[in-house]
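Reopening this one. Same input as before:
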Amino acid sequence: MEHIGALRAVVTADLSHREPTGAELDAIDLEMPVITAEVELLDAQIMTLDRPVSELDERRIRRARRRVLAARRELLNRAAVSTSGVGA
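Same output, byte for byte:
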């Protein structure tokens, strides 16, 4: 029987002390409007889990979905502009 303990340490690196890089933080910052919009949508959906959905709840969820779509569209447009070199 062979021990794989030494090999396992190489395969599963310890990432507990690793800090995010500047590029990772920039990517998170760029995606923050999408993240915020998705959290707001989730909040609106969670509020309706334990009660019947009212007309106000439906409007709140619809608005939150539109914000998510708008934030995603903005992020994709920014990414398309930055990769095509337009506006740079």
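So the earlier flakiness isn't reproducible anymore. For the record, The mean pLDDT is 86.
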